[in-house]
Please model this.
Amino acid sequence: MHGGIGRANVLRLAGRAAAGLLRASPARAGDLSQNPQDPGKLNVLHQIAENFLKNRDKIEAFFAEKTKGLVPPLYLSCDIRNSGHKIGVVDTNLFPAGFNNLCNSYSRLTGFALKAYFETYLPEVRNVLVLAEEHTRNRFYLENVLRLLGLLEEAGIQARAVYAGEEIAEPSFEADLGQGKVLRMERLQVREGRPYAGDFAGDWILSNNDFSQGLPQALAGLEARISPPPGLGWHKRRKSGHFWRLQEVIQEFAARLEIDPWLLNCEFTTVDEVDLGEESGVRRLAEGVDRVLEKVEARYRRYGIEGPAYAFVKNNAGTYGMGLMEVMSSRDILNMNRRDRNKLLSAKGGKKGDSFLVQEGIPTADFYSGYPIEPVIYMVGFQVVGGFFRMNAQRDAFASLNARGMEFACLCLHKLDEPHEGAFLNCAEKGNLVSLASVMARIAALAAAEEMREL
Model:
């Protein structure tokens, strides 16, 4: 099994794994740049950007061919990592919460895309109920729901927010979000087979609830009127199912462009029926880590990448950044203490898992004021509608940034003439990263559409 590597050495070697694409002008006492710990040597990503630019017609022909006759999820978001030596999708969320982080221009584009989606795939729908999570204490999530309602209204759709679980006892509640913004949510009711919010009759339900705790009883019999389909909820969906389909799409895409698919994809494996309380289960999971790291190290040797291969072990049905552990070697699994095991088993709603995804880690090469960042791309149907940068001052180049301490910053490539919270990352020289990340999100949407077709 792979031996361990000291954290100090890991941090010293982090930059050698890759060189970032971007060196932007100062913005709010900081700059968007490559990993400041080591400038690195390799810049394969620039070659990928040139390849994409040269093959724009091939790329558009590929998407036109693959999307023909395929119904996409209504929306999704993708977390993308760029290390300089590769770029890849590390997570795809089919129930995205973060529409409040989109700037005004991206919000307008989202409204146009929603209108086009409903006209194309759901032309009979006029009234929509947005099924929300019951995070009544999470102001940012509630702002997301309020923004989503506004985007639907901009698309010409009447919309109301509802909840269907048991956490909120009242038939309705209002949340004062400040600055005159108030979100009203009502308990979902069903009358004669049709969903209601009070007296408002819904034609369709747009779920912003990921069904981690299963399908609420109130929705029984309404499954055919829900987007995304409940079958894609975390009570049934597995991360590995998405990444198998993503890998297949990337292999064909890369073949068309004559590039190594590894440059666009994370190595991964799945280890099922794992009991972390049993030595045999822990050892099988450690062997899964070995399999992934051996493949990654072979690629590192091929490309002359100096730096430690590492991986994430993820609860296969985990969400909200839970059920995740960063590992530098299989020893990290073999030497887990109780706290580590509980962390890996943690999941939204307290659901325990026995299936784990071992996924190649991509160290980020992109930093703002010394803090690691990663692009998050939002899509409606097969159309990219915008995104933002996730940044985390409490994490390093290797870590998941979807954790305590994360902030969001503008990703937009247009001039920003609006009030905004958080940092504004100067856009002058980040076009390559955003363009490549957008293509990767389109590929992820194809994989998600295949998931949906197979339900």
User: Anything to note?
Assistant: The chain has two domains: 7-94+237-453, 104-232. The radius of gyration is 22 Å. Residues 7-94+237-453 form one domain.
